[in-house]
Design the sequence.
């Protein structure tokens, strides 16, 4: 099972990366941008999806300051080898 | 008394910590892959970038074999000092409350900082008030003792939720604060160093091991190591 874990700073905790990106966008001419937050993405293959939550609690996220969201990806074609080969041209639909 | 200084792949301040500890006692390095603390009386978790700081600072080091032994040592009442990355490791290991977040201004900063000793009676600060160069009766007034120690980090903003911060202050667990105007990283309530409820585990972001020789401008950091020596020796009596 391929899974994707999205990790973001908890609401209410100062997110200086998000603020920096939010301030940079208007400088490039992108107007009307608000509430930018920068987090982390972890993709992994797991045999037992029940282990994903304890993985997040123990290592992938720090629950004191981060919240996480687990997504199960049912596309089995994204094996690790293909992932590496396709890195940079991953969006095969577009190539 | 003997200090044990941990060494992870990516540690970079372990030799300075070793040299600082040797000014007040014996000290040796303890490799991250070993569980044997070799009979040391106190542990120093040094600064650096343990395991590359991958994922989050301290997140992976916290599961190393030596840390399993340190966690047990701490639960048995052993003295543990975490400096900078070591502070991050101790928070990740839940030996200390709270977490260290990226500096509010996002920049790596290296500067000398003035710290106030909020809890001068702790096992890590009890030698701080006895500095010879301070004005005689001044040390007895309500003016807190100050330490001048360098800090160098980009992930040093101390965070804990409001109830936890209130509890830390009530229990005397806030040991060091940045003096007025010195809180460059945005730490909540100007907290520079905290100890656990039992008072045997302490972490701080500034680097006392870099302030032990007059050559580098301040020897205030030595008082932290001296305090630990006093605490260990009084426990042995």
Sequence:
């Amino acid at each position: 099972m391929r899974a994707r874990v999205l990790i973001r700073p908890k609401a209410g905790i100062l997110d200086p990366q998000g603020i920096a990106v939010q301030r940079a966008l208007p400088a490039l001419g992108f107007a009307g941008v608000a509430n930018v937050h920068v987090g982390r993405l972890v993709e992994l293959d797991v045999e037992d999806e029940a282990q994903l939550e304890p993985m997040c609690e123990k290592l992938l996220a720090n629950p004191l300051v981060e919240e996480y969201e687990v997504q199960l990806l049912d596309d089995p074609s994204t094996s690790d080898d293909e992932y590496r080969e396709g890195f940079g041209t991953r969006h095969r639909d577009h190539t | 008394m003997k200090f044990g200084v941990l060494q992870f792949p990516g540690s970079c301040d372990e030799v300075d910590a070793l040299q600082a500890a040797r000014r007040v006692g014996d000290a040796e390095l303890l490799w991250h892959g070993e569980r044997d603390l070799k009979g040391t009386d106190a542990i120093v978790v040094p600064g650096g970038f343990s395991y590359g700081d991958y994922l989050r600072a301290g997140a992976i080091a916290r599961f190393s074999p030596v840390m399993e032994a340190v966690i047990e040592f701490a639960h048995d009442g052993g003295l543990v000092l975490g400096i900078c990355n070591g502070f991050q490791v101790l928070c990740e290991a839940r030996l200390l409350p709270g977490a260290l977040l990226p500096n509010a201004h996002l920049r790596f900063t290296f500067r000398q900082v003035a710290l106030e000793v909020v809890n001068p009676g702790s096992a890590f600060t009890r030698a701080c008030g006895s500095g010879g160069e301070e004005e005689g009766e001044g040390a007895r007034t309500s003016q807190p003792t100050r330490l001048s120690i360098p800090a160098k980090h980009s992930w040093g903003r101390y965070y804990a939720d409001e109830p936890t911060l209130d509890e830390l202050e009530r229990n005397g667990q806030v040991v060091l604060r940045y003096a007025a105007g010195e809180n460059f990283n945005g730490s909540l309530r100007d907290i520079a160093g905290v100890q656990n409820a039992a008072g045997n585990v302490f972490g701080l972001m500034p680097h006392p091991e870099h302030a032990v020789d007059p050559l580098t401008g301040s020897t205030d950091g030595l008082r932290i190591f001296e305090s630990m020596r006093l605490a260990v020796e009084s426990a042995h009596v």
User: Anything to note?
Assistant: Residues 115 and 147 of chain B are 5 Å apart (CA to CA). The first strand of chain B starts at residue 2 and ends at 7. Chain B touches chain A at residues 55-56, 59-60, 63, 92, 98-99, 101-106, 157, 159-161, 186 (CB under 8 Å). Helices of chain B lie at 14-22, 65-75, 85-92, 162-170, 222-236.
